[in-house]
Amino acid sequence: DLEAVETVLAANPEVYAQNLETVRRLTPKVRDPRAGYEQTLRVLAHAKRVRPDILTKSSLMLGLGETEEELLEAMRDLRGAGVDILTLGQYLRPTPAHLPVARYVPPEDFKRYEAWGYELGFREVFAGPLVRSSYRADRVFLEAKAR
């Protein structure tokens, strides 16, 4: 509901965040059906259109079975939606009832993905096995605001 997004934006947040969570192919398996891949991109793009002065942020979990090509596509889609800040972290299975980890992403891969993010034009990128969507949020905000 884009009106709800506008209500949030009217409160003048410093950062508007909505997580894409995973790549397009895995979205139906990973996310609640009420929060689709395209819907998330539409919401983020709408937020940036309505309030270009507010930083936008999204996050992806890695290790769910995505390919590097799919990851790059998701990163491009997020930049296309005007997202400024991106965090990439390792998916960790919270309970046996949740999806299993398909792969533990090596730290050197996270470094490469971080470089891809900067090449794509994100203002700030944090990528690593223990990075979460709120990872060093204060630092991310200050550094992104300065760029």
Features:
single chain; 147 residues; alpha/beta; TIM Barrel; 4-stranded parallel beta sheet; 44% helix; 4 iron, 4 sulfur cluster binding; Aldolase_TIM; iron; 4Fe-4S
- Name the beta content range: 5-15%
Please identify, by name, the CATH architecture. Answer: Alpha-Beta Barrel
Major beta sheet, strand line-up: 1-2-3-4
Return the structural class. alpha/beta
Shape assignment: globular
Tell me the helix content: 40-55%
Q: What's the order of the H and E elements?
A: HEHHEHEHEH
> What is the fourth-level CATH superfamily?
Aldolase class I
Question: Unreliable segments (pLDDT under 50, ≥5 consecutive)?
Answer: none
CATH class: Alpha Beta
Name the average pLDDT. Answer: 93
Radius of gyration based on Cα positions: 15 Å
The number of strands is 4
Largest sheet: 4 strands, parallel
Query: How many domain modules?
Result: 1
- What is the fold named in CATH at topology level? TIM Barrel
Number of helices: 6
In whole angstroms, the N-to-C terminal distance is 31 Å
Cofactor: [4Fe-4S] cluster
GO molecular function, one term: metal ion binding
Domain Radical SAM core: 1-123
Organism: Thermus islandicus
